[in-house]
Amino acid sequence: PTRVGILTAGGDSPGLNAAIRGFGKTAIGHYGMELIGFRDGVTGLVENRYEQLDGKALSGILTVGGTILGTSRDKVHRYQVDGEARDMVPVVVENYEREGLDALIMLGGGGTAKNAMRLVNAGLNVIHLPKTIDNDIAMTDTTFGFATATEIATDAIDRVHSTAHSHHRIILTEIMGHRAGWLTLAAGIAGGADIILIPEIAYTVESVAATIKARTARGSTFSVVAVAEGARDVNDAADYEAATLLVKSAKSPEAVRAAKAHLAHVEDQQREHTFRLARELEAATGLESRVTILGYVQRGGTPCAADRLLATRLGAAAADLVARKEFGFMVAARGEGTVPVPLSEVAGKVKLVPTDHAWIAAARQVGTGLGD
Ligand code: F6P
């Protein structure tokens, strides 16, 4: 029978187990394939650590958070061994061949798409399924995990409303999303945040403070601010952009190393930006300010129905591709269906929120401050 390997890589995301199950039940039950699950993402692939997945292993996992296979952020071409980065693509190819695999299914986000592309280039039959709470993968309508994380962040914004209101405070809720604002924007709108700050729109403290003061003038003595972890004020955004450009334009390996070190320094300096903004707003408005970092609760726990549905249908569609021997694709969600998109059109791309996006327009129309 056709023998397939599956793994989950990158940050965990609600719906991973639903996707493993969706793929596995279709592959094993419908097509009669054999399935093994590599442990801990790329790590298991390099170390050839896996387990046989059968109907029993796939049963009862639809509603379970995290990933039954474990995950890691390792890269196939820069795999860390004793503090040194090694190219492990040849090792992965060897393991794939030794195990007699016909295909490899990689569930992950942007980093995983790049790893998948590297393995496609090395001649392996790979299919990628897009997962991330950040919703920042190109060429797919959405990614599983995003809907659940949106529910969790919305619930958090709902909850801070009553305490902000009772104490007449500003509460800044920091929401994940890496460099993209999708999660903050979605939860900010759904939770009725008074101000939403996303990386795609650099803010000024003056603008945020003006929105809060206008609320005070109208009799609202509290404000809830949804802040993306990647949001920046105009100065920080300019510093970050300059540092990123330096990395892109560096020619020699030394220049690349120096530019990357500088970028890491800039990122480090900007890490506590939400706390800084809270202090600045307190000074500008006279209102007591507090910060809530939502953190990993956003990725944990049971996937919502929409993510289970999405993950199941992407998983099943991936098994169809294996059956048809069509490889080198990401299975994208498109409307109610799915389409295979060549990995070359996805790898290395990040989907940010376009500033003319309908959600941004809607936020403005209902009077939400966007900090600009
Ligand atoms: O990609 C998912 C995500 O949760 C991002 O929103 C966040 O920036 C990052 O992962 C956190 O990474 P880690 O799990 O390595 O702390």
Automatic annotation (TrEMBL):
<feature type="binding site" description="in other chain">
    <location>
        <begin position="132"/>
        <end position="134"/>
    </location>
    <ligand>
        <name>substrate</name>
    </ligand>
</feature>
<comment type="pathway">
    <text>Carbohydrate degradation; glycolysis; D-glyceraldehyde 3-phosphate and glycerone phosphate from D-glucose: step 3/4.</text>
</comment>
<dbReference type="InterPro" id="IPR035966">
    <property type="entry name" value="PKF_sf"/>
</dbReference>
<feature type="active site" description="Proton acceptor">
    <location>
        <position position="134"/>
    </location>
</feature>
<keyword id="KW-0547">Nucleotide-binding</keyword>
<dbReference type="GO" id="GO:0006002">
    <property type="term" value="P:fructose 6-phosphate metabolic process"/>
</dbReference>
<feature type="binding site" description="in other chain">
    <location>
        <position position="229"/>
    </location>
    <ligand>
        <name>substrate</name>
    </ligand>
</feature>
<keyword id="KW-0963">Cytoplasm</keyword>
<comment type="similarity">
    <text>Belongs to the phosphofructokinase type A (PFKA) family. Mixed-substrate PFK group III subfamily.</text>
</comment>
<comment type="function">
    <text>Catalyzes the phosphorylation of D-fructose 6-phosphate to fructose 1,6-bisphosphate by ATP, the first committing step of glycolysis.</text>
</comment>
<dbReference type="GO" id="GO:0061621">
    <property type="term" value="P:canonical glycolysis"/>
</dbReference>
<feature type="domain" description="Phosphofructokinase">
    <location>
        <begin position="3"/>
        <end position="321"/>
    </location>
</feature>
<keyword id="KW-0418">Kinase</keyword>
<dbReference type="GO" id="GO:0042802">
    <property type="term" value="F:identical protein binding"/>
</dbReference>
<feature type="binding site">
    <location>
        <position position="11"/>
    </location>
    <ligand>
        <name>ATP</name>
    </ligand>
</feature>
<keyword id="KW-0067">ATP-binding</keyword>
<dbReference type="GO" id="GO:0016208">
    <property type="term" value="F:AMP binding"/>
</dbReference>
<dbReference type="GO" id="GO:0070095">
    <property type="term" value="F:fructose-6-phosphate binding"/>
</dbReference>
<feature type="binding site">
    <location>
        <begin position="73"/>
        <end position="74"/>
    </location>
    <ligand>
        <name>ATP</name>
    </ligand>
</feature>
<dbReference type="InterPro" id="IPR012003">
    <property type="entry name" value="ATP_PFK_prok-type"/>
</dbReference>
<keyword id="KW-0808">Transferase</keyword>
<dbReference type="GO" id="GO:0047334">
    <property type="term" value="F:diphosphate-fructose-6-phosphate 1-phosphotransferase activity"/>
</dbReference>
<keyword id="KW-0324">Glycolysis</keyword>
<dbReference type="GO" id="GO:0003872">
    <property type="term" value="F:6-phosphofructokinase activity"/>
</dbReference>
<comment type="subunit">
    <text>Homodimer or homotetramer.</text>
</comment>
<dbReference type="InterPro" id="IPR000023">
    <property type="entry name" value="Phosphofructokinase_dom"/>
</dbReference>
<dbReference type="InterPro" id="IPR022953">
    <property type="entry name" value="ATP_PFK"/>
</dbReference>
<dbReference type="GO" id="GO:0046872">
    <property type="term" value="F:metal ion binding"/>
</dbReference>
<dbReference type="GO" id="GO:0005945">
    <property type="term" value="C:6-phosphofructokinase complex"/>
</dbReference>
<feature type="binding site">
    <location>
        <position position="290"/>
    </location>
    <ligand>
        <name>substrate</name>
    </ligand>
</feature>
<feature type="binding site">
    <location>
        <position position="169"/>
    </location>
    <ligand>
        <name>substrate</name>
    </ligand>
</feature>
<feature type="site" description="Important for substrate specificity; cannot use PPi as phosphoryl donor">
    <location>
        <position position="111"/>
    </location>
</feature>
<dbReference type="GO" id="GO:0048029">
    <property type="term" value="F:monosaccharide binding"/>
</dbReference>
<feature type="binding site" description="in other chain">
    <location>
        <begin position="176"/>
        <end position="178"/>
    </location>
    <ligand>
        <name>substrate</name>
    </ligand>
</feature>
<dbReference type="Pfam" id="PF00365">
    <property type="entry name" value="PFK"/>
</dbReference>
<dbReference type="GO" id="GO:0030388">
    <property type="term" value="P:fructose 1,6-bisphosphate metabolic process"/>
</dbReference>
<keyword id="KW-0479">Metal-binding</keyword>
<dbReference type="InterPro" id="IPR012829">
    <property type="entry name" value="Phosphofructokinase_III"/>
</dbReference>
<feature type="binding site" description="in other chain">
    <location>
        <begin position="296"/>
        <end position="299"/>
    </location>
    <ligand>
        <name>substrate</name>
    </ligand>
</feature>
<keyword id="KW-0460">Magnesium</keyword>
<protein>
    <recommendedName>
        <fullName>ATP-dependent 6-phosphofructokinase</fullName>
        <ecNumber>2.7.1.11</ecNumber>
    </recommendedName>
</protein>
<dbReference type="GO" id="GO:0005524">
    <property type="term" value="F:ATP binding"/>
</dbReference>
